[in-house]
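sorry for the late reply, my laptop died twice this morning and i had to redo everyting from scratch. anyway the thing you sent over, i finally got around to it. pasting the sequence first so we're on the same page, its 304 residues, then the predicted structure underneath. double check i copied it right bc i was rushing
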Amino acid sequence: MPDKNPYDQPSHFLSGKRPESAPADNITQFPEGRRRRARPPAEVPAYAELLAASNFSFLRGASHPEELATAARNLGLAGLAVADRNTLAGVVRAHAAAKETALKSVVGCRLVFADGTPDIAAWVTDRAAYGRLCRLLSEGNLRTQKGDCRLTLADLVNWGKGLELAVLPGRRIADNLAPTLRTLRAVFAGSVRLGATCLYRGDDRRQLAECAAIATATQVPLIALGDVLYHTPARRPLQDVLTCIREHVTLDTAGRLLEANAERHLKPSPRRLPFLSGSAFPLTNCATNTRKNRPARAPHPLTN
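ok and here's the structure:
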């Protein structure tokens, strides 16, 4: 009889460690003495970071759009979307920097609502969708004082045609997350996703499992997002200071208002989220050139 498989021990199975008597990692042993080369590990799909806040997300983002674009290129990312809060202000600088580094730059923003709707990331697919997104933001800006934007879910339903959307669960999954997904899916079928992030706060496994269950129940795919606030961990102290200014507290009294760690930076392909590999975002669906989104201008009389 062949020797007992060393991997049968529960401790070895649960820990994932290879016992001393086990064969080499890339060799499979058979009772007859034959050996077969194991299959190479599956290739990690290309990853584009589609949710990165720049310093145009006032008192939240701690990096310039140019820094984010350069870092994304150095990490080998497939693309980058600078998605600031209720503004497209950082898109132009991000596109200019991405063009210099041959990086795909996706046009979009993070929509923050005043009616309790979860935040939603929106990316444009063509010039018409870009115009509607600008109109959506203008509607929200005209309702309140300068520097603020009041949006509702009804605004997105009215002006969201042609947008690719990802509903963001937030730090705690709200009760209206699933209803919001169902509402958007009924209006924008095929263009709605549920964002899944891994921020290393200690509850990531639980939240990812809840997101997967909600995505299955609402019949929308998951999409991996980094929810980035800066391009390098070295900017975490600056981001802490920005948070204190925004919340009118000191560093000593900020407590849990600050991020728990310095993980909100750009990262390469998320190898620890293999179940999201099938929901890789189709960059070809998004407008990656801001020049194509610029409307044609009539010639000025003085130039004739």
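The radius of gyration is 23 Å.
thats about all i looked at so far, will dig more tmrw
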